[in-house]
Amino acid sequence: MILFGIFFGVAWAASRASRDDLLWRWRGGFLPVPLGIGYSIALRALVALLAGIVVVLLLVVGVFTLESLQEYVTTNRPKVETIVDVPAMRQNPLYYWLTLTVVSFGFAGFREELWRVAVLAGLQKLWPGIFASRLGQFGAVAVAAIIFGFGHLGQGVLAVGMTAILGFGLGAIMVLHRSIWPAVIAHGMFDATSLALIPWVLEMLQQAQKTTGH
Prior knowledge:
Blueprint: H1 2-15, H2 32-60, H3 66-75, H4 86-91, H5 93-126, H6 128-131, H7 134-150, H8 157-177, H9 181-212
């Protein structure tokens, strides 16, 4: 977080980006809180819907059978062990709750939305003819989402796709509301609820791997 703050501060000093450039203003009173919670649910539904569509297409065209697809998913599941200590999540209540609060809303939600809006503002300043319009802003969001997705390559191919979808959704929220805060809350809620289930989900996946003999 300190390292990110240094780089972000240097970039801000060089660019002289304003609060409005970085969508820093809190808008709508208390509204960003329920908006963020609602968007976190919508993003989870979007990821699930798109994943379901991809699964159906893969099965229909014959790329996978149901059994081979299950094996592929269990083998290539997102490697959450690269970002959290799963045994500590199970055994250490302090670590568990710090992960669900400080890590989810601070290190993930706040820091990553600052990065996302910085990419958006940078693309608008460098190529205003392409990215200054509303449609162009969504294009900039797509660019940031692709970068965001590949930034999770260490967690596996499935994680790249999931985080790219999530990144586009979070960026779209910022563009629509002209503020990072609904996206920060949505991202924090998404991560907190996901991380809260990690110990149990991994246990289920391990049991599935044993059942399939892998």
